Each structure stands twice: as structure tokens, then as C-alpha cells.
Amino acid sequence: MSRVAVVTGGASGLGLSVCEHLGRQGRHLGVLDLDGAAAERAAADLRASGVAAIAVQVDVADRAAVDRAFALVRDELGPIEILVTSAAVAGFVPFEALSLDDWSRAITINLTGTFNCLQSAIRDMTASGWGRVVTISSAAAQIGSRHQAHYSASKGGVIALTKTVALEYASRGITVNTIAPFTIDTPMLPGMCRTANRWRRRSRPVGSAPAPTSPRCVRSCARTRQATPLARSSVSTVEQSREHRLRRRPRKRCREQGVLPP
Hints:
By secondary structure, this protein is of the alpha/beta class. It is built from ten helices and six strands.
């Protein structure tokens, strides 16, 4: 039996790579994205490779639009049993300059958007007694990120939401996990400010961000077969940050290197 998967933010970057990976597993795919034209191109490429796929333009922050999009996938492909929430926005703004609009946009799209999609999909999963959900959070929610209070807070909410929903639905055959990447080279990355990109490059121990098509990224973000029956939240980072590595060093050595206050 071929299961139906929905991937939000599925038209580019990590979401697109997850779509391609799930397509190779024989899944039927609903490619959801704010960019409807890009979603249609992605779905067309999937169909050309023999995958049953449809594209739906949707703003995940709009609950009514999300419900309509999931209903369309359900009508065209069948009940939704796999969900990957990759749609998100990011940006770098100093905390004192952070506007309420900046804050609200990050929370509404990243956190409320994930909530909207989870609620729309979970009904099919409970009905079938089987479901796999992978939310994409961020290492910024675990270790913090300068000038990203809004983004870090929204992704921290995604982690908490994921753990809570996982506990509630584990006994019903549904696993809910989250993946917390550090930096991945997707179309969202170049749109960030130049200063932030310089800091990101310095933070990466290997010197360059992994591509969204790298096997490690895709395997981490499309764990629909290997997820355990009772999984609260499989939080993992695709790449380790400089700050996280420094925490493993003795504090005296860090102070000598000028990376910690005296």
C-alpha cells in the first residue's frame, strides 16, 4: 500500500529534497508551498519520475486555507498518513530593533503554521491507526542564535508542540518527531543579511553548510519508516554549532582563547 505524504515548504530547499526522497520510497505526495508556481514545477518533476503528486498553493498561517489544501490532497490522493512540516521564515534582527510585526510573523508562520498542519492531518492518522509526523525545528531553539529571538522562540515552540503531541498520540500508532538542523544551504539562507551570513560561516566547524540534498539531511528529515512506536521527539542537529562545541571545552581554556567572559 502506498501511503500519502504532505510536505509543506515542499517546492524548494529541504522540503523539496524530502519530497524527492519520499517519492523514491513510493509515497504519493502533496507538495504544499506559498509559491504555487514552484510547487507545481516540483510536482511535475515528481510525476515525470513516476510519482503520484499534486501541488497546492497555501499559506500555512491561514487555517482555512490549510484545511482546504489538505482536503484537496485527501480527495485527489487519499487519507494523509505522513506529514513533514518544512515551511518557515527566518531572519536576523537585533533584539532591541525587533518589531512586533517581525515577532508575530515568525510565531504565526513557524509555530502556528505547524499547529495548523498537525491538526489538519492528525484526523486521518487517528482514523487509520497509523501516522508519521516530522516537524522541522532548529538548533537555534536549543542553543540560541544572536539576533534571532523571534525565530528561536518560534522553533522552540515547535519542539515543545512536537513533544506534547507525540505523548498524546503515541498509543494510537502515530509517531511525532522533530529534526533540529543547524545551517543548511537552502534558498532561505542567502536572503539573510551579510553580517549574519559571515557569522554563520564562522560558526560552522566544516566551513560550509550541507546541501539540502545531502544524504544525512534527507535521511534525518524523512524518518517515516524507522520511527519507533513511542517517540516523544527525536531532536538532532545536522551540523554542530561552534558555541555547542565550545561548551565541551574547559572554561579556563575558553577564557584564554577569548571566547568566554572572565
